[in-house]
Design a protein that fits this description.
heterodimer; A: 7-stranded mixed sheet; 5-stranded antiparallel sheet; B: alpha/beta; 5-stranded parallel sheet
Chain lengths: 294, 487
């Protein structure tokens, strides 16, 4: 049982959690993730670490409620408990002074890009962040990004804030500047990461993408997260999650991510019809935790 | 002196007792245990078949040297709890081993009755007394050996780790088992299905270890949460045992293996066993329910996967194996049970490609017929493809059960730990000493995929070696450059 020290919504359906997990906090590096479970029969889901605070012994996660499990997590509040959290998993982002680095992020991916942008800046890079969302209300971590980066550009699909349009529209302008980027990180929805990779391929700009595959154990045991990179099968959990975007077979990953669409519909329908029951599953965990501590 | 008052002739006249089982056509639709176990009367009758040889050869076949005639004699005397205690002198997990050991290749093969008569059902008797103890025995007595102040970390809660932890705690060490997953048992919990090894039995055994003082910590990945070096320097352990198993699934590297609907056996079994996907949507983890399932491989894991697929609702569940049934590494009992349950066996068959439907789901397993050639280095006849023999099997779910390699999480973060070219940790001599001072290893991570009992044997050998090392401080095999810990 791992206590939630602090929880707050930072945008509609997007919640920030600070969780007591001292061992993970001690080791967490940018680009790594944890696997967590909400309750006794919960599934194991990978979530990127936004921050590890070794002094406080906490990790920060930002979670968007999309499926049953993430929406269930987002029902939890300060003082509640997660059933399990394990990590840090995956390889840390390779950080060096590339020169000009651009972090392109979409949706909740901005939370994942934040620690990487910080590390890139600390390594001496000039850092530009391009943050994209559907609409103004869904923009997250903008203030934090502005505190770190040399330039931050926000885009919204509906034009309600920043540049109207897609992150790739802005990226196109940036890569056509005289000073070309030396390194690009893209993190967010697959079509965005694919589009970014295609855009930088002709210019041969080093482009890393952070893949979010379906995982069970997250330690290389199940192979469920496998992807094809450079015509070789890799395990995203132990070999990744970041890979050379020019080598990734995005089509295959997109298909594999949809493996359980039918089951997700069933789980979501049950969630929608009985949200109280789902909340009870978490609360039960809370009772157990309280009992085991007394 | 024996209470087996029957004459040798009378003992030989008793037939080997069969164990009751769930009927095949009922059990292939549920996850309850297939074998139902002896009752006391049958157990005593079976025990009476033992000739109580003056020089018992059965023990030679046991990797952990259980005093087999002694415990069988206690069964004849109806001292079932005594029999369980006798086994536990050498094997702490009799309820597990009585179920999953390949006795036909071990103790029962070297039983003097084997050949002319049928061997004593040693495995079934072991299982009987273990279950009897579980149902009737008092809670394990808390032992309080004098604490010696030394701390040992056991990495992995599978059979090797549990065996190692059990011995060390009884010798006064402070023992902590570190497990990467959220439940304990390793392959016993994520790999072996409920119908072969009920989880309640494993839980009972692990609770016993907790009662005698072993600490268990879940969600702790050595190599990530802490490195091996940090276990010494930060956590203050005096020795580390690596029993992390063989946990990286192999694939064949043929086209179509990454299609939707193709699983590794690890993923398929973990979803069902550890994550209880068969309860979906009551449990959150989903699994694809295949109607036409092909499992590639011929080992126990393949049998577990194919029988699981059948229970989940497959109309046809097929084993595809490249050699013939004779070469199959699976236990005879598992193959027999699978056949009874309606599993189809296509031997001398090897997939070369998987094809998909328009949506990317696996639809066809394209296979080649094989024939057997000359024996290979392992003594088994090698499979040779028959040119032009391609044929298709319609499928909607494929499980690759062709074995596991070693997980690199620990070796990548422990540069001074020597591994062989397959990534298995190299040990020197008996006792599991690795190239790194204070670090021991045993089980599948050393040998590659093997059996539960061999892993337990390795865990116990390592325990003796750890004890010796921590008492003497002598690390004989130590290369000079590898020393960076004080003992």
């Amino acid at each position: 049982m791992y206590q939630i020290i602090h929880a707050e919504f930072i945008a509609p359906d997007i919640k920030k959690f600070v969780i007591a997990a001292a061992l993970i906090a001690r080791k967490a590096q940018p680009g790594q993730f944890v696997i967590l479970r909400v309750w006794e029969k919960g599934e194991r889901i990978p979530i990127t670490i936004v921050n590890g605070d070794s002094e406080q012994g906490t990790v920060t996660l930002i979670i968007q409620g999309l499926g049953k499990t993430t929406r269930q997590i987002n029902m939890l509040n300060s003082g509640d408990y997660l059933h399990d959290i394990v990590g840090p998993l995956g390889q840390a982002t390779h950080i060096e002074n590339f020169g000009l680095a651009v972090c392109v992020s979409g949706g909740v991916g901005t939370a994942e890009a934040l620690p990487i942008a910080r590390a890139l800046k600390e390594a001496g890079n000039t850092v530009i962040a391009i943050i994209g969302t559907r609409e103004k209300a869904l923009v997250i971590c903008e203030t934090e990004m502005r505190a770190i980066c040399d330039e931050v550009i926000v885009t919204t699909d509906d034009g309600s804030y920043g540049h109207p349009g897609l992150v790739t529209d802005v990226l196109k302008t940036i890569i056509s500047r005289e000073r070309k980027p030396d390194y690009i990180l893209a993190v967010g929805p697959l079509p965005m990461m694919n589009a970014v990779s295609e855009m930088t391929r002709p210019l041969a700009i080093k482009t890393m993408v952070s893949l979010n595959s379906i995982m069970v154990d997250g330690t290389g045991m199940c192979g469920g997260c496998r992807a094809t990179v450079g015509n070789k099968t890799v395990f995203v959990c132990v070999d990744g999650p970041e890979f050379d975007g020019h080598q990734v077979n995005f089509e295959e990953i997109a298909r594999r991510q949809k493996q359980f669409t039918a089951q997700e519909k069933i789980a979501t329908a049950i969630f929608n019809s009985e949200p109280q029951k789902v909340l009870h599953q978490c609360r039960l965990s809370k009772v157990i935790a309280a009992t085991s501590q007394s | 002196m024996s209470s087996n008052t029957l004459s040798k002739k009378e003992r030989l006249a008793i037939p080997r007792q069969s164990m009751p089982e769930q009927p095949p056509q009922i059990r292939n639709r549920n996850f309850n245990e297939v074998n139902l176990g002896f009752d006391a009367e049958t157990a005593v009758l079976e025990a009476r078949r033992c000739l109580d040889c003056p020089r018992p050869t059965c023990i030679d076949g046991c990797p952990v040297i259980i005093k087999i005639p002694d415990f069988i004699r206690l069964i004849v005397q109806k001292d079932f709890l005594g029999a369980a205690r006798k086994i536990k002198e050498d094997n702490l997990l009799p309820a597990v081993c009585g179920r999953v050991c390949p006795q036909e290749e071990q103790c029962e093969k070297t039983c003097v009755l084997h050949g002319k008569y049928e061997p004593v059902s040693i495995g079934r008797l072991e299982r009987f007394v273990a279950d009897y103890e579980c149902q009737h025995g008092q809670a394990q007595v808390k032992i309080n050996p004098p604490q010696n102040g030394k701390k040992v970390a056991i990495v992995g809660s599978g059979p090797a780790g549990l065996a190692c932890a059990s011995d060390l705690v009884q010798w006064g060490y402070e023992v902590t088992v570190l497990e990467a997953l959220h439940e304990f048992g390793g392959v016993l919990i994520y790999g072996i299905p409920e119908f072969r090894l009920p989880k309640a039995i494993l839980k009972y055994e692990i609770e016993n270890l907790q009662k005698i003082g072993v600490h268990f910590e879940a969600n702790f990945i050595v190599g990530k949460t802490m490195t091996v070096d940090e276990l010494f320097e930060v956590a203050g352990f005096d020795a580390v045992f690596l029993g992390v198993g063989a946990g990286l699934p192999w694939f064949m590297n043929i086209p179509g293996e990454n299609l939707m609907g193709v699983y590794s056996a690890n993923e398929f079994l973990t979803r069902v066993n550890l994550m209880r996907a068969y309860e979906f949507p009551e449990a959150d983890t989903p699994i694809r329910i295949g109607k036409q399932v092909v499992v590639v491989g011929g080992g126990n894991t393949a049998m577990d996967a194919v029988r699981t697929a059948k229970r989940l609702g497959a109309e046809s569940a097929t084993i595809v194996y490249r050699r013939s049934e004779v070469e199959m590494p699976a236990r005879i009992e598992e193959v027999h049970h699978a056949k009874e349950e309606g599993i189809i066996f296509r031997t001398l068959t090897n997939p070369i490609e998987f094809l998909s439907d328009a949506n990317g789901w696996v639809k066809t397993a394209r296979c080649l017929q094989m024939k057997l050639g000359e024996p290979g280095p392992d003594g088994r006849r090698r499979p040779i493809p028959i040119p032009g023999s391609e044929f298709d099997i319609p499928v909607d779910l494929v499980v690759m059960a062709i074995g596991n390699g070693s997980n690199p999480l620990i070796s990548r973060t422990t540069p001074d730990l020597q591994c062989n070219k397959w990534g298995n940790i190299t040990i020197t001599g008996q006792g599991g000493r690795t190239s790194k001072r204070g670090v021991f290893a045993g089980g599948d991570i050393v040998t590659g995929g093997a059996t539960v009992i061999l892993a337990m044997g390795a865990g116990r050998e390592a325990a003796r070696s750890i004890d010796e090392y921590l008492k003497t401080g002598i690390w004989e095999t130590e290369p000079e450059s590898a020393s960076n810990h004080k003992s």
